[in-house]
Amino acid sequence: MSNLFQVLIPLTDVRAGSTIPNENPATNRQLQDNPGASLFFLQKDLYPGAKMNLQFAIISKSEKAEFISQSINACEHPGIGNEEMYYATSLETLVEYGSSKFGKEVNVLTTVISGDKEQRTRTRKQQYIVSSGVRQIVSDNLVVCHSLPYPNAVFFCHATSEHTTRAYVVTLVGADGTKIKATTICHKDTSEWDPDHVAFQVLKVRPGTINPICHFLTEDNIVWAGKNKEN
Fold first, then answer.
1. Model pLDDT for residues 93-133, shown as the tens digit of each residue
2. CB of 179 within 8 A of CB of 172?
3. Domain parsing of the chain, residue ranges
4. pTM (2 decimals)?
5. Strand 221-226's sheet: what is its strand order?
6. Which secondary-structure segment (H or E) carries 5?
7. Which residues contact 231 (CB under 8 A, 6 or more apart)?
């Protein structure tokens, strides 16, 4: 798990599998009101017909600028354990990195939201229903890349194994009719996560006690998954 996650939570979304130690409890409490915090859930709640109150928001340029300096500091933190980390400073290097890990035998996943983006910037949290056809992406290895709040394209990537992380593709239908093909990441072991992690605050659990903990990814995240006969 990387140390980038909690610094980036206030931007708009959640970043897969990361745990930034945050020494300011007040800041952590404020994160619960952030749209991204609503995207956490427990895997046991991922089933057709499940109802979730979620907000898939798009962040404004001014808010992005506010967190650029925090992102710079976050990039200096090491990963936890043997986690492999990589920073792509352009779309070209992002593709090169993904290709170097998987070659051509790769599935590239992202969250796709129907509707007008400008309209969604004003969308508040609403109820979504999980449609039938929750699909697990079976892969020995996953690479999750997150867009960072820089003026140019910069992505933070980290590699995980099937033993620690699962990926799913889930269809959500909102109360207003919005349809989302959401990429979802579930973490099997959270015992090494920081106790102040926003996920524990939202779900009211402690590190390592209830697993897996999952979260939906937003549109600026990419998951690379090696292909096999099951997907």
1. 888 888 888 888 888 899 998 876 666 655 678 999 999 88
2. yes
3. 5-226
4. 0.75
5. 84-88, 155-161, 141-147, 221-226, 106-109
6. helix 5-8
7. 107, 135, 136, 137, 138, 139, 225
